[in-house]
Amino acid sequence: MTNRITEKLQQDKKLLSIYFTAGYPELNDTVGIIEGLEKNGVDMIEIGLPFSDPLADGPTIQESSTAALKNGMTTEVLFDQLKDIRKTVSIPLIIMGYFNPMLQYGVKAFCKKCEEIGIDGLIIPDLPVDVYHEEYQAIFEKNGLLNVFLITPQTPDERIQFIDSVSKGFIYMVSSASVTGAKSGFGKEQVEYFERIKSMNLKNPQIVGFGISNSETFGQATKHAKGAIIGSALIKHLNKNGASKLDSFVNTIRQE
Amino acid sequence: MSYNANEKGYYGEFGGAFIPEMLYPNCEELRRNYISVMKEDSFQKEFHQLLKDYVGRPTPLYFAERLSNKYNTKIYLKREDLCHTGAHKVNNTIGQILMAKRLGKNRIIAETGAGQHGVATATVCALMGIQCVVYMGEIDIHRQAPNVARMKMLGAEVRPAKSGSKTLKDATNEAIRDWINNPVDTHYIIGSVVGPHPYPDMVARFQSIISEEIKWQLKEKEGRENPDYVVACVGGGSNAAGAYYHFLDNTDVGIIAVEAAGKGIHSGESAATSALGKVGIIHGSKTLLMQTQDGQITEPYSISAGLDYPGVGPMHAHLFKSGRGEFISITDDEAMQAGLLLSKLEGIIPAIESSHAFAILEERKFNTDDIVVINLSGRGDKDLNTYIDYFKL
């Protein structure tokens, strides 16, 4: 299966992927943020579909989700905002959200809509790999969607192998046992974990997330992986600056 | 059909473990071990010894004669209100603290709404000398000051949940996040039959002591093990799960679940999940839950803090969906009147949660020779201020 994600993964560069919460800081910032990030050289974007009870996220992303919901963000609104996104944006777009809103929209309808819009993949932290494999994989693949799974330092090798076998894009390597935005920087333990995963020679490349907030941590993470994802740091930037000055944010990450 | 969990933690279509990968190792460790640990002789011995000497079990099965006369049927009360700490919650926390010790954990976390489960957890942590952190919604901390003080006296740290709606569901989110951040040394004691597999089944098994006792106590009193009906209030549903457990697969026993209608099912201020909920995922479990059309979890309301959970345990979702259970919802006003009536007729002041179960007697008629067991899950001391305000006492 080829789509924008698999094509991007073949490029000979370290990938910078950015997460932001749709509908934050303002309801209609979504498209502007996506265009701004692409213009400034971001390789891939995770569009956060806000949820009232985001278990895997720390306070920064939860607060942005609460604010986005208050602003009026819903699944319908997001799809409507994104309906013409492929006229202006060509980098891979992934929707990241919790399973319940998708379940209410209808998983089939949700996937179909994603394909229509030009979404390339989904990250659903609370949809476990075995349930995906048994119940939903066929629907996702029919609509050309890659599903991305997380692994952590505690994930047993056998399970990593299973996740690798089910995955068809990349593996989201959570840097440490934590929720998003909890820790910054990597210690010896993380580096050992990155090396351990690297030595497993998985068929899917890995992209590191959680704990990456600046050029230093981006550099460290991508030494051991294909790319890295930044989320909470951008939310903090948006909180301070609104949806502007994305160039300065991206540039500080990319500088060596 | 069985009404218990299968090995994957499903009750019919409900249950399972919809958890972020970060929680997988924690839940998996528990899932692999919980049944074998519970079956160990040494575990059973210690568990039952503590239930007897520390909790005060068996709790009486009391024939409520005056209440029976008023409603013209035979009513027995299962007196969980006489447990140490004032409610059935401690049955589960005793079980889980022993589980945690056997799994080598040295730190306990818990969530609490009204504070009853928090107190029961802080109690067993004090008993075992284990560090205890209880997450409680910031709003609840203000509403339930005496229970916060109790937890502190017992040596627990009470951490305010400041996210979202700042109540029980957010306290649960915070506890889960803590567990994500502390996957190795920490055990999370969930207080109800909710959350990812194996929690609903494990908590139901610990609480099943309630129906185990009902069976032999009823045999002594009536010469038969099975009542015609078992009635219990349902928030998350742990006291109900315990009261139903040994009767689940015996369809001669009617199961009645009583939910909190708050100010009325359609008032917008209610916690009647079976009436208002749709299938969804909350705290790692597929179940019925109150949510917006868009799948955002909504805030429930009941005068009783122990019943205002937006979901219901997957066992109860299945009992509802399959028709095995009869679900009735009771308003704040009906519950308060039932609590007053029980106080005056039997000299027992019930927790407002339990008052909901008694309120069905006004509308649900039973035959004269029916044996109806009502689970009196907790005592009313903690609710005195609510009773005072309501009745202008």
UniProtKB/TrEMBL annotation, chain A:
<protein>
    <recommendedName>
        <fullName>Tryptophan synthase alpha chain</fullName>
        <ecNumber>4.2.1.20</ecNumber>
    </recommendedName>
</protein>
<keyword id="KW-0822">Tryptophan biosynthesis</keyword>
<comment type="pathway">
    <text>Amino-acid biosynthesis; L-tryptophan biosynthesis; L-tryptophan from chorismate: step 5/5.</text>
</comment>
<comment type="function">
    <text>The alpha subunit is responsible for the aldol cleavage of indoleglycerol phosphate to indole and glyceraldehyde 3-phosphate.</text>
</comment>
<keyword id="KW-0057">Aromatic amino acid biosynthesis</keyword>
<keyword id="KW-0028">Amino-acid biosynthesis</keyword>
<keyword id="KW-0456">Lyase</keyword>
<feature type="active site" description="Proton acceptor">
    <location>
        <position position="46"/>
    </location>
</feature>
<dbReference type="InterPro" id="IPR018204">
    <property type="entry name" value="Trp_synthase_alpha_AS"/>
</dbReference>
<dbReference type="Pfam" id="PF00290">
    <property type="entry name" value="Trp_syntA"/>
</dbReference>
<dbReference type="InterPro" id="IPR002028">
    <property type="entry name" value="Trp_synthase_suA"/>
</dbReference>
<comment type="subunit">
    <text>Tetramer of two alpha and two beta chains.</text>
</comment>
<feature type="active site" description="Proton acceptor">
    <location>
        <position position="57"/>
    </location>
</feature>
<comment type="similarity">
    <text>Belongs to the TrpA family.</text>
</comment>
<dbReference type="GO" id="GO:0005829">
    <property type="term" value="C:cytosol"/>
</dbReference>
<dbReference type="GO" id="GO:0004834">
    <property type="term" value="F:tryptophan synthase activity"/>
</dbReference>
<dbReference type="InterPro" id="IPR011060">
    <property type="entry name" value="RibuloseP-bd_barrel"/>
</dbReference>
<dbReference type="InterPro" id="IPR013785">
    <property type="entry name" value="Aldolase_TIM"/>
</dbReference>
Automatic annotation (TrEMBL), chain B:
<comment type="pathway">
    <text>Amino-acid biosynthesis; L-tryptophan biosynthesis; L-tryptophan from chorismate: step 5/5.</text>
</comment>
<feature type="domain" description="Tryptophan synthase beta chain-like PALP">
    <location>
        <begin position="56"/>
        <end position="378"/>
    </location>
</feature>
<dbReference type="InterPro" id="IPR001926">
    <property type="entry name" value="TrpB-like_PALP"/>
</dbReference>
<keyword id="KW-0456">Lyase</keyword>
<keyword id="KW-0057">Aromatic amino acid biosynthesis</keyword>
<dbReference type="InterPro" id="IPR006654">
    <property type="entry name" value="Trp_synth_beta"/>
</dbReference>
<dbReference type="Pfam" id="PF00291">
    <property type="entry name" value="PALP"/>
</dbReference>
<keyword id="KW-0663">Pyridoxal phosphate</keyword>
<dbReference type="InterPro" id="IPR023026">
    <property type="entry name" value="Trp_synth_beta/beta-like"/>
</dbReference>
<dbReference type="InterPro" id="IPR036052">
    <property type="entry name" value="TrpB-like_PALP_sf"/>
</dbReference>
<comment type="function">
    <text>The beta subunit is responsible for the synthesis of L-tryptophan from indole and L-serine.</text>
</comment>
<protein>
    <recommendedName>
        <fullName>Tryptophan synthase beta chain</fullName>
        <ecNumber>4.2.1.20</ecNumber>
    </recommendedName>
</protein>
<keyword id="KW-0822">Tryptophan biosynthesis</keyword>
<dbReference type="InterPro" id="IPR006653">
    <property type="entry name" value="Trp_synth_b_CS"/>
</dbReference>
<comment type="subunit">
    <text>Tetramer of two alpha and two beta chains.</text>
</comment>
<dbReference type="GO" id="GO:0004834">
    <property type="term" value="F:tryptophan synthase activity"/>
</dbReference>
<comment type="similarity">
    <text>Belongs to the TrpB family.</text>
</comment>
<feature type="modified residue" description="N6-(pyridoxal phosphate)lysine">
    <location>
        <position position="89"/>
    </location>
</feature>
<dbReference type="GO" id="GO:0005737">
    <property type="term" value="C:cytoplasm"/>
</dbReference>
<keyword id="KW-0028">Amino-acid biosynthesis</keyword>
